[in-house]
Write a structure and sequence with these properties.
homotrimer, Rossmann fold, SH3 type barrels, 3 domains, five-stranded parallel β-sheet, four-stranded parallel β-sheet, globular
């Protein structure tokens, strides 16, 4: 088994060993970002973006060009045939003829899995609604490992909207394979749902950032969204207590890494940008070597033979009922066939959007 | 005479011999899609798209990249200077300085001819309103020839909206040079207008698909548009009788080719996708080698010397009156000079939109 | 000092000697537009366009491809993270990781300077609101020099909206380093503001084009915008007297150059396009070699060592107050630090938008 031709929809599609291999190749890419220009010469990447993006799309396109490949695509679903009512499955089967690999961003949860199911080319998920964003997670892991040498032994604080933030959920799934301590810093309304806790590794929870900060090695900040709060006053109060500024940082370790998937609004003060603990712009930059590694590995230009693949622990599968999540691709695209992991007699998990439900 | 530097606005701009040469070069391109990467190195294609497109734009861009060339352009007229009121003629004269060849899609009939008239670079029409879409026709011909060996002797059924569909009209003009039998399957309201019948080769007409299907070698399906019907009930009845599904296909030949220019809505059931007679995704894929051939021939990277060009049967031309078609570029762009074939003392045909009218 | 890695925000960022060097390199680029394809191989240009553009964006992209480089970017701020509220500073710091050089068009005056201040890669201003458009000016200078051999001794007429037109203002700043005579042809409402007069070189002013035309070597036309006039009748009267048509041109020199930054609406009649004095399409075309020169010089692929840089005549700088121009980036982006040239005890000039004001 190798990474060649494999889709990456959720971070668990790669085994821990495969994740480590991607990060190792990314380090190599970072070294030779200038002289590796022919590795993907003649290959074409399609970026199919149905939602706005700067970072993700441009870093994929930059990575492809740095490797000598070409890029086609669209930046906005309204300029594609989706505006004429084309289904996602048809779109995927068309684009597979034009490109060697497809990077998809789409507002519907599970849409990336659906596209991959209908497409003979590998699909990389660049964000499917509130579901996953696995290449952000690989970039996050790379940033920590690159800066601190290793993840093992670190104390990582996740701060902000831990309930809805897809980057945090993906990161937690990946962190369960490392020896880290995790503290979740969020108001009760936005605390981490239990189902996202790493298996066998309970996280700590707190609503206050100040006492938690002193012991952290990594502070991973996400944006708190106003629309999550019924009461505007409550939002203002909560938001104010999570603004990272130089005063707050006086209590932190000198080698703390402050991370953020960006874009930020005002949850990190501009004055922090000058602080050497600010890692978020470097984090965005590391997206290029990580995505170079992904592209080169998936297209077979760099070796990945002999790695242990992800565990397939003998799941039983069901093809009914349709997923109850109204935002799931399995409901939005009527022709799609339900695909459910049978967890036990009554529990199912949708293979598109990962929702667990009772039949 | 050769194809170098020539515009392709309507399918008749190429002689039958030239069409056959494009198809032969496309077959060659299909073989060496991976190793021909330098044929157009250093050349630039501009894709000027004023309407949504996935298939056409991305297949042109893919074709250009597969040949080692570069692409510039826009996907949406709103991001170009047309938003500031620039005329099509000025736009064409600007882009000719930036690119070696222009592929244009525009909502106005005859706009591609107008652009070509003002531009020293070749213009390829990627769809000008309801007028023509000649590269789709070349792709259609290639699909049939590639799959069946030859078009000669085949019985081709055209089904759906034969009145307004530009892909059907272009295809019929090309088919008059082949020894084929054509059956037009459509409700009376959407039957083929007489003026699109191939010269000297009357088509057969029927409203019922089921009896016609058994003898067909090719079934070319197009979408029936709801907005053509005054009565919604009539639309539903008509539409229902042309949905291609596995039950209907039981009566067809086993080697039938089911084609569709796509995007489809629901005129072909998803269950048909698994049927080996379904040719529409392959048809979309063949757009790449066909467009590679067109680009390489038009830019002179592949030889096309010595072919018989299109017939110029001594037309007389007039430069008045202005075309009466309100959707024609000759009316929409005021500065444009009328250009009319003099058919007889009172009949004229507009060179932009092909409308025939009586003065 | 060299041009390597330097931003170009306003035309004065280059010394007269540096401008001459860019023009000389452009002439060289024009010669070898076909065989210089590897000069920027492996380098990436980002085009960040927050406003519609055909000419500027496509000519930059064409220039980059002609030199063998790659392009990433967006054509419309709505498809970028700006739609999520990202600041311009954050956007600039992200894109610097993905590209070697950034070309920015943005509706806010001074936005290009702001982006350059936050970004380790060079930024080239492709138009920042009503402020400047320096690469248009370089193209204008190149067009005159290329066609007439030299600018010295020429009589240049500027016609149209001289009050608000940024291309005219930039051009005048550049012309002060040449031995030219300038006549400003405009209705009083749209005459050139005194602050844009070249230092030490008073311009002549007139409202009538006909008497002025006979002596001109260059007629530089810009569009008169209806929305500048409170009275529609006044607009119609004024506009009509500045329409360049064959009748008017009978009084001009046979070697007159008629220029226009385009797009035009109707200020130059289409009949003039056939006149050999019409230089505006050639002017648009010269944008490619000029921008090739700029890209190659800024990225260090062509030598620019040893030129005299722009004068730094010992300005004192202040960092308060905030610029009073409501359309200035320094006001629109709250985190930005005011930066003001101290002209005298009470006069300041904003380094973002160039507004002079009294404190």
């Amino acid at each position: 088994m190798s990474l060649v031709g494999r889709s990456l929809i959720r971070i668990d599609d790669y085994s821990p060993e495969e994740v480590r291999h991607v990060l190792a190749v990314a380090a190599d890419m970072e070294q030779r970002i200038r002289d590796s220009a022919d590795l993907l010469a003649g290959r074409i990447l399609a970026t199919a973006f149905f939602e706005p993006s700067t970072r993700t799309r441009l870093s994929f396109e930059s990575a492809m060009h740095r490797l000598g490949g070409a890029v086609i695509g669209f930046q906005d679903g309204q300029t594609s045939s989706a505006a004429k009512g084309e289904t996602l499955a048809d779109m995927a089967r068309i684009i597979e003829s034009y490109a060697d690999l497809i990077v998809l961003r789409h507002p519907v949860e599970g849409s990336a899995r659906l596209a991959a199911n209908y497409c003979r080319r590998p699909v990389i998920n660049a964000g499917d609604g509130g579901h996953q964003h696995p290449t952000q997670t690989l970039t996050d892991l790379y940033t920590i490992q690159r800066t601190r040498g290793s993840l093992d032994g670190l104390h990582i604080g996740l701060c902000g909207d831990l309930r809805f933030g897809r980057t945090v959920h993906s990161l937690l799934r990946a962190l369960q394979h490392y020896d880290v301590r995790v503290t979740c810093i969020a108001p009760p309304l936005l605390q981490l749902p239990e189902r996202y806790e790493p298996a066998g590794r309970p996280v700590e929870r707190t609503a206050e950032i100040e006492p938690a900060l002193a012991d952290l090695d990594v502070l991973y900040v996400t944006r708190i969204q106003r629309e999550r709060f019924a009461d505007a006053g409550e939002y203002e109060a909560v938001r104010g207590s999570y603004i990272i500024d130089p005063g707050l940082l006086q209590r932190s370790k000198p080698e703390l890494l402050i991370m953020h998937p960006l874009p930020r609004v005002d949850e990190i003060a501009y004055a922090v940008d000058e602080d050497r603990r600010a890692a978020y712009f470097g984090q965005a930059a590391y997206g290029v070597p990580v995505r170079m590694a992904l592209l080169a590995l998936t297209l077979g230009a760099v070796d990945s033979e002999g790695l242990a693949g992800p565990e397939r622990n003998g799941h039983e599968w069901a093809t009914e009922p349709r997923c109850p999540n109204p935002d799931c691709a399995n409901r939005r695209e009527e022709y799609s066939v339900p695909r459910l992991w049978v967890i036990d007699q009554t529990r199912r998990r949708c293979d598109y959007c990962d929702l667990e439900f009772t039949t």
